[in-house]
Amino acid sequence: MSEQIVIVGFGPVAARLIDELLPAVRDGHVRLTVVGEEAEAAYNRVLVADLGVGRTTADALALSDAAALIADGVDVRLGVKVRRVDRARQQVVLTDGTTVHYERLVFATGSRPVIPNLTGINPDPASPVLPAGVTALRDLRDASVLRAAVDGGKRVVVLGGGVLGLETALAAAEEGATVTVVHNGPHPLGRNIDRGGGAVLAAGLRRCGVRMAGNARSTGVEHNAPDGGFSALLLADGSAIDGDLLVLSCGVRPRTELAEGCGLSTGTGILVDHRLRAHHEPHIFAIGDCAEVRCPDPGCNECRTAKGPSGLVGPGWRQAEWLAEYLTLLATGTQDEADALAELPQEQAGVIVLKARGMNMAVAGDNAADPWDEEALTAGAVHGRPRLQIAQWADPEHGRYVKMTTRGGVLEGLVAVGMPRTAAELVGLFERGAELPADRSLLLRLDGPDQLASSGPADPAGTVCRCAGVSGAKIQGAVEGGCSTVADVSKATRAGTGCGGCHEDIKGMIEKHFQAAPAA
Amino acid sequence: MTKSADTHCPYCALQCAMTLTSPAGLAPASKPGPVPVAAGTAVLETFESPLPEAPLNVQGRDFPTNRGGLCRKGWTSATLLNHPGRVTEPLLKGADGIHRPIGWDQALALVTTAVKDTQARYGRDAVGVFGGGGLTNEKAYMLGKFARLALGTSRIDYNGRFCMSSAAAAGMRAFGLDRGLPFPLTDLDTASTILMLGSNVAETMPPFVQHLKGARDAGGLIVVDPRRSATANFTADGGGLHLQPLPGTDLTLLLGLSHVVIHENLVDAGFIAARTTGYDAVVRSVNAFWPERVQSITGVPAELVRETARRLADGARKGGSYILTGRGVEQHVDGTDTATAAINLSLLLGLPGSSRSGYGTLTGQGNGQGGREHGQKADQLPGYRKITDPAARAHVAGVWGVPEETIPGPGLPAVQLLKSLGQPDGVRCLFVHASNIAVASPDANAVIAGLRSLDFLVVCDFFMSETAAEADLILPVLQWAEEEGTLTNLEGRVLRRRRAIQPPAGARSELWIMARLAEALDAPSTYSEDPETVFEELRLASAGGLADYSGIHYAMLDRGEAAYWPYPAGSTGTPRLFLDTFAHPDGKAVLTAVTPRRRRTPAANPDPAAKTMTLITGRLLEHYQSGAQTRRVSELLATQPEAKVQMHPAAATAMGITEGAFVSVANERGEVLCRAELSTAIRPETVFLPFHFPELESANRLTEAATDPVSGMPEFKFNKVWVRAAARTERQHSVLQTTEAS
Q1: Which of A47, A428, A437 comes nearest B299 by C-beta?
Q2: What is the ipTM, given to two decimal places?
Q3: What topology does CATH give the domain B91-155+368-439+456-564?
């Protein structure tokens, strides 16, 4: 038995799915076709901004090697799009006129940047044509546009205070560009972060040389550059922010039009159930940015609280791994055998970790409530459910801020700015749903300079030499007995005969003793 | 008439040089031990104190590896020679479960009959052999030959499977050859950066720490350990960095380090082009592991990931950079891939094959290196040859003087071998040498059940270890100071072990035992009981293999020459491997793309009072392996008399556990009941148990027998456990039950 699987889209999530399906392809259980509209096989979109500032190379971004996949028997179609899906005949029709039959079809079409409604920019959302000097920083070509601006020390205007915009701004500023971030609201990251964290974050960005233009509503772009390209971003208050390159970083939107075109249900993304199957269509699946897990069962508790696609790659990769296992089981066994596979657990709310060299920040979950905000803290505390608790640490002078929002000791939200070890620990606790230590200050101390110096509980026996198990008292006795060198002490007590780490201590005891003795 | 002998420590792979002097001359070391001994008694024998004075004086001896240093284990090692609990006569278990002394003739006849009967009824593979990494090269070699020719069984493997197999498999895959350190240890002295992953040398081999001083002074010691171990503490005060990842995430951390090396253009491109293959696939495979994502998975801050990668690259351009791995990262179901990721990182930086940088794995057991080269492994023949390779078989058959088809094919790796005990088509009669599998194996409860289901169990040991206590027949053997032979240390340097004292009258060398049994079983080929004669044969058998010893002689070792294998006849040996070429046919090192796999979901915690935590295991300075020896040294036992579970005060407080209180650590495989030791040196969601203790303190009753698909290594270092406060009475109750059951 051998099943034909077609994957639409060849981004990072599709690449992971292909890698996981390869054993079944090699065994002949699966015949696999992948259709990608870009000329390149999958590359790591997360690092496009790094590429744009010259911190990495296009070669290093590769996630798949088309030639290697072809050698493994995968049918790889690059630089071509799917025109439509013919569900009745179970085939996809490509823009080059060919058709491919499928038993299973996987949408991994990802998302496209949101293009804001600004005068001077073509607002057609399906196929935006951006004017010269304006980029959405999504693919390798966009990266080269940014690269030219950074290398030339140009002025870069970033529109949008989301995490991708901030990362681009920081990286470009560090590499020599003059960067302004334009965002609405009083601080960047909008509702993902609270007021205190946002303020410390903004101050940190300024310290890194990024100009911040907050509470700004942009209305249009001006094209007065010598080549007719972008020259300024116009704001609603009548002011303008001059620049040579405008980077649009206003979020992404799932690419669902192909799915809609063949009659599949869509919400924000293509609607799939807990097995990543399109509603009422056992042959079609969707994963990654284009998929929205919301099952058709109106009574499903999980789906009542589910949010749309996260726009993060981690959940997409986990979906790809799970779906590969499921599809392999379908190809090698029965539907029942495949359905015995445990469903993919619901994703936690996304964690945002700022990818930057000069700054450290992590946020996750809901951080809206404040410590004294009784109403917000008790709002969900019914039927014995504990109330929210907030622990907070603010040190704006040193760019540090931490907020832990917990319920029953488990994090529901976190903000950590300028405290890398604390951030790493909190993110781990959040993702595992693990209980925090009752003494929350333990987590704040992780970034203290005293961390490594202390070596656990003090040894009551006063052992100086751990290797040979010799106490300070015994060494002192040997010194008093006349041992005047480390070698003498070692010979008499075995102290210092292992790792040698206590030689300085022994030396100190010898010096102390003989200095104290009256000169002969 | 003082007799002295220059030899090496009986314990770990550092093989510290020591001099033994015997004021009493060559008198027998021991009086007969206390017999009869009740079988199944896991409680240590108690003796009137004080124990007799050790019959030998131990002095550290200057040598490049230990520079005269010894740890407490070495200093006190001679007290075991005349320990009153020593087994000095063959002991046969009676129908009442009591072991009683018998003569050697009767003992050997019993073994011969058991082997013949078992094989007549169930076939040759129904007899199995379990060896150990503590055996000398001569004994390890002879054990492999004895199993294949005298017993005619393929079922031989050893405890190194629990130790070095992942690093060995990764080394073979990358370099085409596996020698723990492919360079002399003293090369580390001048390094600027040393990255140590999953190794706590400050406890496991303290004199090793001397070689880290240069890197510490340069601020370049980087230790990766979920605990702030004694070794991690050496990174304090500007000594370097401590990265404290969540258990089970080492592979991800290593992929993140390689990611930074590639994306920050720190790759040694000339080296990659000239001396490696597989680069592009590794670039693709690490692409998904950018530092912030690695931080989310491992808990190691992104900036520390970058910093570590940069220091390694920087060190390579200065005094040198080394990457060293230990069991902490290797003893996992993905241990081979993790070691491979460490090797990939070293190759990206161009470290291996240089005289001032490199990758190495720190071998654990005394002869863990030599013991994995000469045929104790299920798939291997002497000289690190593959048992499936026709040319290798022909060569060894020639040396042994037997037709090639006499040599059985590959057997089962250790975990599978132990799982087969007493099973249909499994092993029904087992020989155990230099190994305490009842304590040291994963899922130890299941192993003990397996031992009890055997038709006949022969254990060679000098103490009533927990495994010997299960034996039908115990054969008393020699201790290190009573025998001649060679061992190969963690550097691949062959060392001489020398006799300083006469053994007790009733004890015999394994070589003697195998020679007698081979005779009784009418085995083909020859079985000398003289170590040097056996070594001469080993030389020939290893000639032309990867681990070629053919140019090494006892005389040369006795002159103090430094002999590093491969040492083909006519050469001067190989202190540094790979300087010109790697051991694959094309001379290149192979980069293999690896990626973390999804792990099996552990069983659900059935106890609402218990908290699910992660168990990691390791050593204490005072003890070695299963503790069969060190728990009998009163000075060591006095310092560490029992297993204590280390946990973070924050976690303990939440469960009402105080310092010294009893704790139950359990999962679907078993339960440990022991006292708590509270320490901020461990992560709050993790607990640590030393694995040196038996019975209710036996950490391996909790570890899983799932194995690495490549190396057969079990999952020792990442197990889910359910932790709760326990009452002291629970322990008394359990002890009582165990005693009644036995």
Answers
A1: A428
A2: 0.82
A3: Rossmann fold (3.40.50)
